Amino acid sequence: MIMDHYDVVVIGGGPGGYVAAIRCAQLGLETACIDAWLDEDNTPALGGTCLNVGCIPSKALLDTSHHYHRLQHEFAGHGINVKGASLDIKQMMARKDEVVKSLTGGVAALFAKNKVTWLQGYGKLLGESQVEFTPHTKGKKKPKAEALEADNIIIATGSVPATVDALPVDGNRIVDSTGALSFTEVPKRLAVIGGGVIGLELGSVWSRLGSEVSVLIRRDEFLPTVDRHLANAALKELTEQGVDIRLATKTKAAKATSRQVVVTIEDNNGEQDVKFDKVLVATGRSPNTENLNAEAAGLELDERGFIVVDELCRTNLPGVYAVGDVVRGPMLAHKASEEGVAVAEHIAGEFSHINYATIPWVIYTWPEIAWVGKTSQELKKSGVDFKEGVFPFKANGRARAMGDMSGLVKIIADAQDDTILGVHIIGPSASEMIAEAVLAMEFSASSEDLARTIHAHPTLSEAMHEAALGVEKRSLHI
């Protein structure tokens, strides 16, 4: 039998997979991308978790909830008085869905523009140069699998919500992140199990819309991987906003009825039952490698199910690469995309490189939290001598004019040569401001370089300038 042949077959159409496919095609490689995603209408859609039920819809809801919260609590301070304002959940969700469809449709258009073959269905490895593709079919017709030949294979199947036996997700009372993006009404009481990025962001959405949100965190430290300055400030801000954050609280079980969920927790007061209307299980994500046929194909996985790769994302199988959430490193869409580009360029014989030390992180609560590089606690633990500058947004003219004065900018530099080692921001538009820090670190800038860079006035970015000045104890406005 003659098989279809491609220079590259990508398995997975999320931010790692679709970007890799487009870049391969741009470089003149005949490329196919197999993607299994079906939207709620059972229609194939590109973009993976990020575009369909992750980054994009959550940000749409975060923005809506932020507008509503400001209308309820902040606009009066600006002299804007609105009476009779109400929340239309149906319209909010319709807007979210439209944002998603416009972007997933945009990816499909990019595939057509770049002549990427979109194969709608399931893909798995048959060997180092073959992939099995099983297309979606409608009705009772049994799908027929076919084998594809590929000189190179890129696995980008992403991740799935981690499951906990004691917290059985039913899609109604007990939900994962996907379910929390589609509530038809604001739950009176919402429990969020897990204090990571997903839990805090979705908890923030429903808290701003009026839900009594309790975040149950097993650890006794809030956001342990975040710089302590930011983590402590975030804990204070979220608590003041009304989010009930419970540290050192173990969730032992959750039992749903038709009306509520009884959650059994254990904290310093012992074991107790607490009642909620909804429970969001946000205990992390796991690599989506279960249906790849990894063992039979000889693909090496680690003990947690991640695909083992080297610095160029090469697996143990010749010509087989893996990127994104299925490999080591942070589960971030932009990290997956950069790995996809790097692999495509490597396959095409070009130089490729990823600087994992300058990958930015963002938590889209309000105020936003963003950082790049090392935290002060990491540097202390490793014995690196450093200096730091901190500048609060309450001393920034633009932040005060906006009425968003919470948070700070912190810059950490090497005590010997002044090279910037880390930048940490909590405050308005932190997700946008962090890009300046990433660029500075990519060019091995010093805090002096930032301090001598002219920043427009009045802007939020002046807080970055002042923090850089503060490294040498010469901030001008505090």
TrEMBL record:
The keyword Aminoacyl-tRNA synthetase does not apply. It is found in: Cytoplasm. NAD(+) binds at residues 194-201, 284. One of its GO terms (cellular component) is cytoplasm. Its cofactor is FAD. GO terms for biological process: 2-oxoglutarate metabolic process. Disulfide bonds join 50-55. Gene3D superfamilies: 3.30.390.30, FAD/NAD(P)-binding domain (3.50.50.60). This is Dihydrolipoyl dehydrogenase. The lineage of its organism: Bacteria, Pseudomonadati, Pseudomonadota, Gammaproteobacteria, Candidatus Tenderiales.
